[in-house]
Amino acid sequence: MKFSLSSRSVPHSALVVLTFLITGPTQLALAQTPSSPTQLGEDAQSLDPITVFGEVDTSAQRAVQLKASAPNSIEVITAEQLQQYNEQALGDALRRVPGVTYDGANRSREVRLRGLPGEYTQVLVNGRPMIDGESRRSFEVDRIPTGLVERVEVVRSPRASLPGQGAAGTVNIILKNGVEQMPQSELAVGAGYLEGNGEQGELSFATATKAGPLDVMLAGSVQRFRRSESKDEFEFDAGGSPDGGVLELNERRFDQINLIPRLALQTDQLGRFEFDPFYLRTTEFRDDIETDLEADQVTLKRVSNENRERVRESYGFRGGWERELSPSANLRLNLDWQRGETDTERDETRLNADGTVDRERQRTELIELEMTRPEAILTMQAQDHSLSFGVGASLRGHDETNGEIRDGAARPPREDRIFEIDEDIVFAFAEDVWNVRDNLRVTGGLRLEDSETETTDFFGVSTENDADFLLPSVNAVFSATPQTDLRFGVARTLRRPDLRALSPSIDEEDGTAADPDIQGNPRQDPESIWGLDLGVDHYFADNRGHVSLNLFERMFEDKIEKFTEQDGNRFVATPQNVGDARARGIELSARAPLTGIGLDGFTLWGNAGYTDSSVDEISGGSRPFLNQPDAFGNLGLDYFVAPWNTTLGLAVNHVTSVDQTQQLDGGGFLDQSIESRTRLDLSSSTKLADGLDLTLSITNLLGQTEDRVDQILDNSGAVISTTRTSEPTYQAAFARLNWTY
Fold first, then answer.
1. Which chain regions cross the lipid bilayer (predicted)?
2. In degrees rounded to 5, what are phi and psi of residue 17?
3. What is the DSSP letter of 187?
4. Which pLDDT tens digit goes with each residue over 30-57?
5. For the chain, what is the total number of helices (H) and then of strands (E)?
6. Average pLDDT, stretch 519-524?
7. β-bridge mates for residue 529, sequence order
8. pLDDT at 521
9. CA–CA gap between residue 395 and residue 149 (Å, rounded)
10. How far is residue 258's CA from residue 281's CA, in Å, rounded to a whole number?
């Protein structure tokens, strides 16, 4: 089936109106207030009463109840759990969430669920996709302050109501303005220090008021946090003798301003109107000093000192109208408009070994993104069936340009970094939540996505790529006992290429085997992925405890992988459709109060996952997914000291090593080894008075250094060259005072 609807053939305004007038099958609105993709909004109103055992334990109990009420397999993490260890950026707090890993010792930007590459994890904010001021389809979660988050839902098994990209799973971030009502206002202030880098701090607030039929919410934050991705790389020749290297100091400071207001007007005759504007701004200051070494790895060759300032802005609004058409039917219209920009300025001075200036250059880069997303949803109740029908579109644009001044003279812009990408996706979905019996609920749905993508380069040459996907899904929950649920899910999802990866541009990295340059490919096709999920959840101790076991399998067609080849003296990785792939694994999560064995106040919790994958390579043979760890997990212990009204926390995060071999396009192999990583975090959360809490934390107490080895081998397996990379990690201390009133 092909749609002719496109922003290139129909004016934007006409397309929006037309899309609103079409209504076809699907399920309840995504988690755009009050409910989420997991339909927790209604279920949350009928949850059992909560027994108070301490803020963290009570929060975990509430999360377990939300998990149990969902029609598909999910995990829920509440604000109190996320803030237990005082991480400022949400990405760091998500490390303890079941199945979450990151690519890199000091990175927490792009979530990887189930150990699979980040492009298979879909990130939604308040139930809807967000553009990020960059080219990736997933929102980088370190741009969201933990203090603005109400809860996070990790959806393992997809549904028709969700955009179709969550093959590994979907992370749905519900912000403070993403719930129907906020019972209390909050004000939080925090300060801390990142070892060897500098001070960090934050101020966040959330408040709400009501003026007759008008509800007003306002939440926001100002914060500064730091990262260091410094590393040392040493090269060795075929005989193992030193052959140069690079000492790289890479220290980053992030200053953020975030505002997320919300207005809602309830009328008797016209229904409910909602308006949710947002503004997210991240300014990154980076000191990047690279010291190139001669072959002896001691003598200085040259030094490059680059100061970089990158401003990333995302802003826009969601407007919604909802009206009851009859006692059993409801109509909702949404219009989501977003714009993102990344404006980067680089000022570089390169010095020779004797201190004389070798080169001075100033570079600029501007990335502009825009998305318009209209959607119409009709929901109906029919006896034991909850029916949903929806239609909409996602219209995206991506433009890039650049400039350079070298040694005081303007140079022509890089032609490969000036391009435009337009992508129009039209979708429709239908879903039926069927309460077959008191202990059996089946959710079936079908989603259609039709996409048209056009890439235009510097010379005006365009490349088009169209694709249609039918995405069926079935989820079932069977309550074998009042405390035990069996879950089943099967669904088809897809993965579209990153927008920048569709252009022929080259992103210059180190150009080594360990960190190759990245060149885009406009001829990429979307991947098609079939998935199966099986699970069992058991709840006990008044929902304070649970044990969950999940099995999953994914089958990939037209798998996209970065294929590395040597171009002169540099390595370049290009995304290509390499063939079929498979991934399967097992996940375990549990939380258990230890009162039954005489340890009152103690709660043990943990999660672990194992993933096995294989990719059919173009030249034959197979290998695991790139940079995929086999196993990962967390283990934690909370102790509620009742006389002090304090919860003490200890958490250990571990990711196993990576060992893999990849065939190179020009012959030979790239053999990579990354050692395992372990983090130890400590926290203390004390209720000083009614509504006043103090949380202290020390994170990454072990301060482990990650070692990596990359070897180029010839066709016989003999070593041609070796790169050894060492990247230290850093401890952090933080204190946060939170006042609810």
1. none
2. -65, -45
3. E
4. 333 333 333 333 343 344 443 445 666 6
5. 5, 39
6. 81
7. 493, 556
8. 82
9. 27
10. 6
